[in-house]
TrEMBL record:
This is DUF309 domain-containing protein. InterPro entries: DUF309 (IPR005500), TTHA0068_sf (IPR023203). Pfam families: DUF309 (PF03745). It comes from Amborella trichopoda.
Length: 237
């Protein structure tokens, strides 16, 4: 990586999002309005009317959301998680909200909204970390989301190092790090690809101006939690 781009820990870059998670006035609609470059993405944040939800249908079960997430149908997964989030109480509510934002983040990444992906994945990880998981599927999921965040962070630094002009903008200030996620905006830099072992990876494959950047990849997060494991947090955590 070019010496013109100072190294920072990804946790420092995401600290502003941890503050947002703790804010009483934070609303994810605001983030959506601020970040979404496609009007269709705003529908991800619509609020379901109570009469549209049915607790006794499999369409709105947590296990169904897990299946959709692991199938990379992040849009439909979000809809189900949002329905669940609207009806559960804390601490389940925090868990589901974190998972929901991770689904939105991966949706953004697959649709060339790199900054939106970083924001939503950072927010989702923040909420999951609040739960202080010590083991189990939610802790493993949190680790995999962190790996994806590190991956996006590092590849965005690589993009910033591609030209002298961009390097000058990455001067180590807080403002310069707010530019991360904007490099290559709207370009297909991240490709989801299946391997023979049934694992799926996110490949960083820049083209054109960024063609000199080496290809790297990270494993796509999978969620291995069940509805019963979510319900285990109904009363204690």
């Amino acid at each position: 990586m070019s010496k013109g781009v100072p190294k920072r820990d990804v946790n420092l870059f995401l600290k502003e999002y941890d503050v947002l998670c703790d804010s009483q006035t934070y609303h994810d609609e605001q983030v959506c309005d601020a970040l979404s470059t496609h009007s269709g993405l705003r529908t991800l944040y619509r609020r379901w009317e109570s009469d549209e939800l049915s607790d006794d249908t499999d369409d709105f079960k947590f296990d169904r959301a897990v299946l959709l997430f692991n199938s990379r149908d992040y849009y439909q997964c979000h809809d189900i998680l949002e329905a669940i989030w609207n009806r559960v109480e804390e601490p389940q509510r925090t868990i589901v909200h974190g998972l929901l934002q991770c689904a939105v983040g991966l949706y953004h990444l697959a649709n060339q909204n790199h900054r939106g992906a970083m924001m939503e994945l950072g927010e989702g990880r923040c909420k999951l970390r609040k739960m202080n998981f010590r083991s189990g599927p939610f802790q493993q999921f949190e680790k995999e989301i962190s790996a994806v965040l590190d991956f996006i962070y590092e590849t965005q630094l690589e993009l910033a190092a591609c030209t002298d002009d961009l390097c000058l903008r990455m001067d180590g200030s807080d403002r310069s790090y707010q530019l991360l996620g904007s490099f290559g905006a709207g370009q297909k830099l991240y490709e989801f690809e299946h391997e023979s072992d049934n694992a799926c990876y996110i490949n960083f494959e820049p083209e054109g101006l960024y063609s000199s950047v080496k290809t790297t990849r990270v494993k796509v997060p999978l969620l291995h939690a069940t509805e019963e494991q979510l319900k285990a947090y109904e009363y204690d955590c």
